[in-house]
Amino acid sequence: MDLNNKSILITGGTGSFGKMFTKLILERSPNVKRLVILSRDEQKHFQMAQEFPESEFPQIRYFIGDVRDEKRLETAFEDIDIVIHAAAMKHVHLAEYNPMECIKTNINGAENVINAALKSGVKDVVALSTDKAAAPINLYGATKLASDKLFIAANNIKGKRDVKFSVVRYGNVMGSNGSVMPFFLKKKKNGEAFLPITDNKMTRFNISLEDGCEMVFYAIEKAWGGEVFVPKIPSYKIPDVASAIAPELEQRVVGVRPGEKLHEEMITSSDSYNTVDLGRYYAILPQNSPYSKYTKEEYKKAFNGVDVPEGFSYDSGNNTEWETIETLRELVIEHVDSNFKV
Q1: So which residues are the catalytic ones?
Q2: Which of 22, 67, 271, 283 is deepest in the core (most CB within 10 A)?
Q3: 4 has a pLDDT exceeding 90
C-alpha cells in the first residue's frame, strides 16, 4: 500500500507492533510525509531512536505523551492523516489487580483518541484489538471490547467529517513481550528443570508481527468504517510449543490462571449474523441501525464477500488449521530466535 506523502501517527508506537509497522512503512513508502511515534515511555523512545534515528529518517518524530491526556493527543494529531491506535494495558493479571488503571488507558484512552481525531481532521483511525475482547472473562478483555465498541460507534457521530474508524482483532503474536515462545526459550536457556503448562488442552491462535501489520495496511486501504477485521490464522497447543522448544524438559501442569480461557475466541456465535467472509479475513460488520452508513448486502457485493453460517464461531480450539511441533520450531527460528536449536 502506498503511504507516500501521508502523515501517520502510532499510539503506543514504541512497542513491538509500532517498531515493526515503522520498519515496514519506511521500506514501502520511503517518502512518507511524517511518521509520529507517540508513547509515554521515554526510555523506549530513546531505544527506538537508536534503531530509527531522526538524522537518517527525518520524517520521524518522537512524541512523549499518554492516551489518557486528550489535550496532548489533540496537539499530536495536528495535520495527521492516519492514526494507528496500539497503546493499551495488555497484561491480564496486572489489569485484574489494577482495574481502574486499565480502564483509564484502554477505555478512556480510546475515547480520547476518537475525540482528538474528530477535532483534528484525521481521515483514518485503525484500532488494534485482541482475541480476549470476544466473550471476555477478564478485565483486560472487557476493556478492549468496550474500546472496540467505541471505535465502531464513532462512525455514527462523525457528522460530515471525512473520517472512518475500524478495528483489527488478532491473536497471540509470536515473539512479542510476554508471549509463550520467548518465555519457554528463557526457561530452557536458564537451565530450568521443567516448563510450566497451564493446561494440556489449552490452545491459542498464532500470528506473526508482520501479518498483524498487514492487517492494519488492509484496514487502512479497504475499511468502510465500523468493521472489526479478523484474520484466518492457525492455532497451536501449548504443550506442542513446549515440545518444539525443549523436548528434553518435563512439562508440569500448574493450572489455569485467573482470567485465562482454555481456548481464545475471535468471533462468537452471536457475531455470526453480522460476519462476512472476505477470503483472507473475516469482517464483523456493525449491526443495522438508523445510523448505519451501509448494509451488509452492499458490503458483500463490493468485496465479493459471503455470509458465514448462522451460529458460526471462530475459536482456537475449533480451528481447522494447526501448527505442528515441526512448524513451530521453524517459526521460533524465523520470528523469535534465529540461533535456536533443539
Answers
A1: 132
A2: 67
A3: yes
